[in-house]
Amino acid sequence: MKRHYDDPAVATHVAYVSAHKAERFTYLESLSPAVRMAVFNDLSPALQRSILDHAPASILVPLIDHFDPDRAQIYLRQISDTKRRKHITTLLRKDLKQKVAQFTSFHTKVAHELVRFNYILLPHTTTIGEAADAIALHRAETGRAPEVLVRKDGVCIGEIDPRTLILNENTELVGQHLSAIHTLPHTATAADIAKIAMNSAIQKIIVTDAADGSVVGIVYTGEIIDLFEEKPEESLYNFAGLEENEHPFDSPYSKIQKRTKWLVINLMTAFLAAAVVIFFHDTLAAVAVLAIFMPVINGMGSNAGTQTFAVFIRGLALGEVNLKNAGPALRNEIIAISAQGILQIGIITLITAMLGHGMLVGVVAGTAVAFSMFVGIIAGSLIPLVLHRLGKDPALSSGIILTTFTDVAGLVTLFGLAYIFLL
């Protein structure tokens, strides 16, 4: 293959390493792993074998790690000493395992197989004909067509669409036909991973070493989405007060055993709302029409809270939101619910007036409904955020807590305003 140096400095490094045997390893160690890889790639085969046989592991492991799995295997096989080869291989596998484990820690159920290694990494000076040969060799050895990544100065800069190999001349360089790639370091947070995975235009992520930029592997966003979609679904069991292992055909005894605790807790919290009604029984007796609005308040507040709760549970599962950055999200919820509350007040006032109970009753009832919805979105936002911050399941018993907040707040507002304006 004709050499086209990416950078004049690479040619200078190659010349120095070739000419200064005594300082060779010290000089290589002074280079960044990416540049070291680019230099090694352009050394003579004899000099490459000498480095493979004699370079310290601290130089050799990062060097080989920068190549794709196919090329790494070729270089490992060239190490003449069997014991040394096994030692270097063990270090490479341990390093790769640690990086993969750190990247996949964003989800407790993720398997290490999420990160794929079915790729080849070619210099950007590779011709399309040479790339086709490399793909054919990989397919012959593995039975699979690889993803084709392209590097420059030891750093991955893009990928090649397979159609490029068909539509262009064999003598053209792959560096002239790059497609953009999307990379994440192996130390990426769940929020970073979710943000890029949720972009429907992105099909794959190139996972790189956070320290030296070498390629760790490839992750397909569809598989990430599948994992994230599972998490909120599982939490719905807790939200409903059910055990995750309950099934439709479980025995009545099993269902009673699993549900009774939450139903009793729900009964106790329901008495808080009942206590509000008892406290304002004189107001209710004087303005009996208020009883009509009690189920409306309970339903509207609970529904508004549940909608917000679902949005925040999904945001937590995707790593998009947490207690620290929730301010803007909560502000948007408040603005939206304020507009909806005004609409509810108008509708309820109109209906009440049409039924002959007067507009003031409608304003009081509508305001209570709007405030119940407001409390619902506040509770639906903060309850999962706080529980998540405390290390608890964000959906654990949240339905019960949410309903209690909205019911009590709505009824207190209804009877309190009625006492002030209607008596």
Protein architecture, described:
This protein is mostly helical and 423 residues long. It folds into three domains: 8-97; 112-221, Roll (CBS-domain), CATH 3.10.580; 240-421, Tetracycline Repressor, domain 2 (Orthogonal Bundle). The protein is 63% helix and 7% strand. The chain is built from 17 helices and six strands. Strands 1-2-3 form a three-stranded mixed sheet. Helix 12 packs parallel to helix 17 (398-421). The protein is elongated and about 100 Å long. The chain crosses the membrane at residues 262-280, 286-313, 334-355, 361-387, 399-422. Residues 294-417 form the SLC41A/MgtE integral membrane domain. Pfam families: MgtE, MgtE_N. GO terms for molecular function: monoatomic cation transmembrane transporter activity. InterPro entries: CBS_dom_sf, Mg_transptr_MgtE_intracell_dom, SLC41_membr_dom, SLC41_membr_dom_sf.
Looking at this protein, list some descriptive labels.
about 425 residues; mainly alpha; CBS-domain; Tetracycline Repressor, domain 2; 3 domains; 3-stranded mixed sheet; 6 strands; about 65% helix; elongated; monoatomic cation transmembrane transporter activity; transport; magnesium; CBS domain-containing protein; CBS_dom_sf
